Each structure stands twice: as C-alpha cells, then as structure tokens.
Amino acid sequence: MLCKRYRSQTKSQNKFPAITTLRLKPPQRNNMKTIFINRILPLAQKALVANLFVSLPVYGFILAMFHDFGFSLRERSTMLLKTVSSGYLIIFLSLAACKILLAWREKAFRPQPQPLASVRRLSGIAAVSFLSLFLYSCKGGIQPFGKKVDLVTGLTTSYKGIVPTETKLIMNNELLNHTDIPLGEKFTLVNTGVSGLTVKDDKVSVGCALSISGADGKQVLYEQDLFKTDSVFNKDSVSNLQCKVSTGAPMEWQKKYLVKVTYWDKYGTGKLENAVTISMEDEP
Fold first, then answer.
1. Mean pLDDT value across the chain
2. 260 vs 92, which has greater pLDDT?
3. Global pTM?
4. Under 8 Å CB-to-CB from 132, ≥6 apart: which residues?
5. Are strands 232-234 and 219-223 parallel, antiparallel or unpaired?
6. Could you tell me which residues are beta bridge partners of residue 107?
7. What sign for the dihedral angle of Cα 149, 155, 158, 162?
8. What is the rounded distance in angstroms from the CA atom of residue 125 to the CA atom of residue 139?
9. What burial class does residue 157 get, using C-beta atoms within 10 Å of its C-beta: 0-12 exposed, 13-18 middle, 19+ buried?
10. Which residues pair with 244 in a beta bridge?
C-alpha cells in the first residue's frame, strides 16, 4: 500500500511543469551614438577641412570672374553658403563612398557580415547629405548668373538675372562662324530665349549700351542707352535682345576692336553683357 501511495504521489508531482529560467542579453546601449562618434564624425571633420581648401578658392574665383555685376551682401552670403555646402556634399559623399568600398573589400569574404551596422552607417551619411543638399537648394533670392563662351568666334556672354538661351552673330541674315567684318558692313549681336526680366503691369523695361574700343583700350564709340526713347515693352514681346552694330570711320582697316553690348533691367537688377573682338577687313 505504501508503494502504491508513493507512486501515486510521484505521478501527481510530475504533472506540474518544471520551472525554467531565461537569461536575457543585456541591451546594447548608445549603439548609434558610438557609430556616429567613431565613424561619421571623423569623416565629417575631414570633409570639412578639405572643403575649406577647395570651396573658398572657388568662391573667390567666381567673385573675380563676375566682379562687374556688383553682387549685394545678401547675394555674396548666399553664394558663399551654396558654394561651401555643395562642396561639402561632394567631398563628404566621396570620402564616405571610399570608406564603404574599403570596408566592403575587407569584409567581402567573411562568412558572417554585419549588414545592420552598414545600414545604420548609411543612414547617418544620408542624413548629413540631405542637410547639405537642403542648404544648397535654398536659393535665398540670389539671381541666376553665369558665363558662356563661343569657342569658334570668341563671343562671350555674361549674365546675372537676364538669362539668354543662345547668343550668336548675324550678318546679311547669315550666321557667322568668324569675326572678320568688312569695313562699312553691319552685323547684329542676338540673344534668343531671354528670360528673367522684372515684370510690372505686364510690362518690362530694358536699357542697352554699346561701346567699341581699339586694341589700345581707347573708345571709338560709346552709346549710353540705345533704348532710351523706347525702353518699355510688353512682357510677351521681349523674347530676344539684339543690337545692330555699324562699322566705319574712325575704325580702320586691318585692326581689331572690342565690341561690348550691355543690357540691364530698368525694373530690376538684372544684367546681360555680350563681348566680341572683331577684325576689320577690306570692303567687299
């Protein structure tokens, strides 16, 4: 009887499940902070130092090239911000790409790579890149500016605010691919697809100055404003800006002259300048 009771008690005790203990791994704290301090921050510092040596000379070069435009303090500040931020974006992404490629090369043949750390690292890089791109995309009121050069004729077009699509030389209704002008002939400097003029009451107003200088820098002709008697136009009628230039005395045969045509926005601050050096040839 005792044996039966002992067996029955043993069976009843076995009905209850055994209690097991679970060992939890300690959470990884400040993992993103560690990645930022050890990986992203040193890379950002290197990019910042390298960017200062690149972007500041570029900024100075831009100001020197377009010194005639007279940028305001706000435009200079915005231009500096865009130059530094875009340069930082390019340099940082280049360094990050090189670092990722080197890390991938080292871990390419390991059996158990760690993609989570790579994803987090890329997330930090994307965040910094987005910030730089955001700063660069903020125009801040600065007008578009630039310079175009025709490598065939040497015709240069500098613009700020007033932007042409194309600039060309026309003589006798033919497109010129040279700058040899017969003495006594006329040619036209044409800017097509012009945009950026300030509109007031569906009108735009443009000024046009013409200057011709010899090789010694002495002016042989200067017109302060060819449009002074009629400078207001309907906004839809001004898609091209052109100036017809006549040659003749006191210009001389077989000499070169610098022709400059400058347009400016009388309702705003835009400016457009064409410059070309022509050579006077014998009359046809």
1. 76
2. 260
3. 0.59
4. 85, 86, 88, 89, 92
5. unpaired
6. none
7. negative
8. 24
9. buried
10. 188
User: Is 163 in contact with 195 (CB distance < 8 Å)?
Assistant: yes
Other C-beta atoms lying within 10 Å of the C-beta of residue 189: 22
Rounded CA gap, 25 and 15, in Å? 31
Superfamily for 145-281? abc- transporter (atp binding component) like domain (2.70.50.60)
pLDDT for the residue 170 = 92
HEC assignment per residue over the chain: CHHHHHHHHHHHHHCCCCCCCCCCCCCCCCHHHHHHHHHHHHHHHHHHHHHHHHHHHHHHHHHHHCHHHCCCHHHHHHHHHHHHHHHHHHHHHHHHHHHHHHHHHHHCCCCCCCHHHHHHHHHHHHHHHHHHHHHHHCCCCCCCEEEEECCCCCCEEEEEECECCEEEEEECCEECCCCEEECCCEEEEEEECCECCCCECCEEEEEEEEEEEECCCCEEEEECCCCCCCCEEECCCCCCEEEEEECCCCCCCCCEEEEEEEEEECCCCCEEEEEEEEEEECCC
Q: How far apart are CA 232 and CA 103, in angstroms?
A: 64
- Mean predicted confidence (pLDDT) in 147-162: 89
The residue assigned the tokens 């011709």 is 212
Dihedral (Cα; 245, 180, 217, 156), 10-degree rounding: 70
Domain definitions of the chain by residue range = 33-137, 145-281
Tell me the CA end-to-end span of the chain in Å, nearest whole number: 141
Locate 44 and state its tokens: 């950002």
Amino acid type, 1:
M
Q: Per the structure block, which two tokens stand in for 96?
A: 């990050």
Q: What percent of the chain has pLDDT over 70?
A: 69
- Residue 3 phi/psi, 5-degree rounding, is -65, -40
Note the residue count of the chain: 284
